[in-house]
Amino acid sequence: MNDPSILGPGAVDPLVALRPWEAPEVTSWGRLPMNAVDRRSGVLPLDGDWRFQLLSAPDAPVGGAWSSAYVPGVWTLQGTDDLPQYTNVRMPFAEFPPHSPAANPTGVYEREADVPAEWAGRRIVLRVGAAESVLLVHVDGRPVGISKDSHLAAEFDLTGLVRPGSPATVRLTVVKWSDASHIEDQDQWWHGGITRSVLLYATDPLYLADVTVRAHHSGELRVDCQVRSAGGALPAGWHLTGELDGQLLVQDGEFDRFNAEDERVSDFLGEARLQTTVPEVRTWNAETPELYDLTVLLHRADGTIADTSRHRIGFRDVEIAGRDLLINGERVFIRGVNRHDFHPLTGRTVSYDDMRADLVLLKRFGFNAIRTAHYPNDPALYDLADELGFYVVDEADIESHDHAHEIADDPRCLNAFVDRVSRMVLRDKNHPSVIIWSLGNESDYGANHDAAAGWVRRHDPTRPLQYEGAAKLDWAATDDASDIACPMYAPLEDCVAHALSGRQTRPLIQCEYSHAMGNSNGTLADHWAAIEATPGLQGGFIWEFWDHGILQRVSDGRPAGRAGAGLYDNGVAAPGYRWAYGGDFGESHHDGAFIADGMVFPDRTPKPAMYEHREIAAPVRIECFRHEGIVLGNHQHFRGLDWLAGEWRLDLADGTTLTGPAELPNLRPGETAAVPLPFEVPHDGGEAWLTLRVTVAEEQPWAPRGTEMCVPQIRLRGPAVAPDVPVDRQVEVDGEGLLLHPLLTAAPTLSLWRAPTDNDELGGMAGRWRTWGLDALVRKVVSVRRNAGRLTVEAEYAGTTGVVRHRQVLTPVEGGVRVDEEAELPEAFDDVARVGTVFETAAGLDLLEWFGQGPWESYPDRSAGAPVGHHGVPVDELFTPYLRPQESGGRHGVRRFRLSAPDATGLWVTLDEPRQVSVTRYRAEDLASARHHDELVPRPGCVVHIDAAHRGLGTASCGPDTSPSYLVAPGIHRWSWTLRVL
Ligand code: GAL
Ligand code: MG
User: Fold this and answer.
1) Which pTM value belongs to this model?
2) Ligand 1: which residue has its CA nearest to atom 2?
3) Choosing a second label site near 138 at 20 to 30 A (CA), which of 414, 707, 711, 951?
4) C-alpha of residue 892 to centroid of ligand 1, in Å
5) Could you list the active site residues?
6) Which residues of the chain have pLDDT under 50?
7) Which of 745, 830, 760, 836 is nearest to 797 (CA)?
């Protein structure tokens, strides 16, 4: 970045000469200490278009040609040739730490800042919200400072460098690859740029340097304030006051002045405390996040105000007692999710509104906790978490995954570890939402971690600390850098066994579990059943919130960038666009669709698994049905039920539905009470289900009145089976024994395969299925026998390593045909995707109505969130567009369904038992051969699967497979169904 225009001919920029991108000991130079003072006033924003050029290396000369780039933003999504790249563990370049590649995209950003004339005599500070990964700062050609660390702000003192009333030229040089990249090897897209806002602010020369708030649920409040200046001592008479919701707080005693006597003082002038006890304090917790407004004022001797800092604070305590994590003395369940700062158009730059929308959605789906995977998130996220109510695990920006072992003990990185952790703590310490500090992710465990842990434990004894890499060596250890056992993807049995072992020493809260890649989150309900039933287990954080698909133009493969606003809807990219994942930008090294592993699509549309979570987290539950009525329970930790309303609904198999208002009893947390059955249940009508639809009655900051919160239900009566009546008629079959039917374009045949889910692929099942030949079974008819009206077709379905014997008995019954099927799977096929029937219908049948679980997609091991009832959904909306096409759109527990055209013609099917059914526009092979949705061509008719057995989804793409009870066993399977014309 040698630029003669600003440095003079032949001059070498000292910041470049230092080569800080390959110097791990250099974490910063000229960067101000981190603090928690609020600087929202007296600010000059510098966001917008900056002059920009992309150099091939940090020491390449700055050329003449400037283009422009938007700040905040990543250049990788703004039209440069340096495009996003996705790698998980492996580094995107070959160099070992601390080295970076010679080809090292370096963005030079430049603009004028009109420093206000009224800032004369004031201290002037530049803040760069975040830049990845090394930032070099020059003002008017003079070197100002260096900072590393892509997810925290860097501030530089410009007093004396800029002249109030005149423009100053600010140049920010951002080097993409550095020694720091090796400790920012998180599983996400690699970008380069300035991702958070840039601004200048001004203070009095003597200013509030930090504010530390300790607010306990007893009502005790302590606010410690530090004062600094460029030099000199604190003049007599300067003092602090505070206001808490309008109540005056006064300075408690003298300022501790460390340098009062000494003329050669440092900039640290003193520290003083405001203190009070708030009677009948409204405490903060994630359910009722009560906040108070605190204003800290630094007064000059004449009473005028020299500096101000505003905070929204919450009174709460977090502690570990034995193996329980307590909030205000209560053992709470942690229903968490891992969240990245992500946006499909702007990458790591996220707006306040977007973050708010993330959290609002999470609240509505029952989440109460966030791990800021894997770095300090945008500062506004913590304000929102305080306000809306989330427990936050705040994680430091340390992940040295590819070279973890070398780095964890490398003394050259010691400073970086302590710097990253301590700066995070200094920034976020006043947020009530932050309940746990995390030292980072997947960086092995070494002395550098212990150093950082030591710093945190001394500086903030009010919060526990966690680090997965430390605790994984022995969950029961008591002397490592983690106060919590926080494994990732631990088998449920291991967690339960540990809690029952008598060895448990600390809370067990998984930092990652239930990997949400593609069609996933199988056994989530089993996890929660165990967590709620086992003392010592307290929850975990689902991996993860987002599918990180980037909106991409198909025609030229370019990211859509900010121009892509509105070019997606309901999880789907507009025609001509798609959601890019690893490899789609031509990367030579990449990890494919592993970047798409979230509970929501890239546009935040919830996936069906979100409904599963919502129900598992239900605040009100139906405990059981007794003679005296329905027993309801309040499953919250701090709230009554008064903010909720209920409505009863009774669904009978014959189609009858009754609804009526529900009185929710006044229950305290943990209490249960019986309420009378709201209806006289009719004697006829068959199977009967009672559902309580729970909605928000009192508007919440995150949900208007009427928002549905959960739909718990209970079965009141089992099914009554009405036998089919055989009739005297013939069924038509072709020469191969295949049913001929006017509404079917492909006759019912046996299916053992599904388009592999990501779990199937990465867990190895899909490979076995291909080896066995399940994706291309060859059918051979063995015999066709007629016995009166009944037709028996025996067939063999041959794979490459085994043959399945299949029998279909077709019986004409009143209104249609009954199909009784039997398949015998050889022992070799000991784990197949499904055993069932597939057929295809004529075009025009566009509406599916069914009695069974719904309306959302559900699978055998992910069916807690889909109540039994009468549901109807257009066929095109049944399918879930997981980023990489795969098995999708299934509905569990279907008793019967009808597929109809707008004129109400069509077919209907009744099933012998509740079965897994799917109706889509795609054959399994259509899905399996596509990489993206824009490659799929919907078929005009419907592809219908009725499964006697369907394999659970599990989470084997990263973590445990489904449990054995959800596998499809070899041997004999029998099922039957009746097809009728409407
Ligand atoms: C974890 C890791 C996450 C992510 C996840 C898989 O090991 O901490 O960052 O890689 O696995 O999606
Ligand atoms: Mg990793």
Assistant:
1) 0.97
2) 187
3) 414
4) 29
5) 442, 512
6) 1, 4, 264
7) 836
